[in-house]
Design brief:
The protein is α/β, with parallel strands linked by helices and about 220 residues long. The protein is built from nine helices and eight strands. A hairpin with a 6-residue loop joins strand 3 and strand 4. Helix 2 packs across helix 4 and helix 7 crosses helix 8. The termini are close together. The mean pLDDT is about 95. The chain binds cytidine-5'-diphosphate (2 copies).
Length: about 220
Amino acid sequence: MVAMQIAIDGPASAGKSTIAKILANQLGYIYVDTGAMYRVVTLAALRAQIDINDEDAVTQLLPTIQITFAPGEPVQRVYYNEQDVTEEIRSATVTKNVSAVSSYAAVREAMTNLQRLIAQDAGVVMDGRDIGTTVLPQAQVKIFLVASVHERALRRFKENQAKGSNETLAEIEQAVQHRDELDSNRAISPLRKADDAIKVDTTGMSIDAVVQKIKGIITNIA
Ligand code: CDP
Ligand code: CDP
């Protein structure tokens, strides 16, 4: 089978990274978590104590940010200027501010260029919001993963509880919904199903069932 580009987009906590990582491992492809990249830029801005709403200040920070990934279990490790920030980029503060930072043109351009560079000579499974529409419009496989807001919030709630967080289910549900709204309504490459993407509703589906379903789609296309 020729190495493919597989794009997995969808709203927060639809299971994109979980499914993308399993598929990449099984196919021997590179897994690219584009959300982690936007989270690193957000963390950099917060650490620099820049006003998140100051687009110029965030833009000026971009050349100072180097983002790298390294394999890791159970999650891929993410580095900001060679410092491991894997856990820090998932903090509630980064999560709260990431959609604003992701709406800026220069941020999107820098991240999109980096993502295309990584995808240029290897098979990739890339997950995000605009992979099928903007980053890899020629991807052979495009999946738009969704689930009900309640189920997505519940998944994130369980994950956070395991990490000792005390955010309530209602708070998470509201935050997930708010972020989806911001991501869907921004001017540049909003969260949207590409016309040629296949929508998979994972509400009530186990991780394994979703993986099997998408593998079936890939087999049909390859
Ligand atoms: O894992 P979760 O669904 O919480 O979010 P994520 O995939 O880590 O993405 C964090 C944020 O980055 C999203 O809410 C978007 O604002 C932004 N993002 C984006 O704009 N474009 C992408 N391709 C990926 C993420
Ligand atoms: O990357 P994204 O934000 O779309 O979601 P994720 O981080 O892959 O998944 C969010 C949580 O939902 C994780 O704790 C997964 O284990 C869980 N999950 C699930 O329970 N059932 C699925 N079918 C997919 C993910």
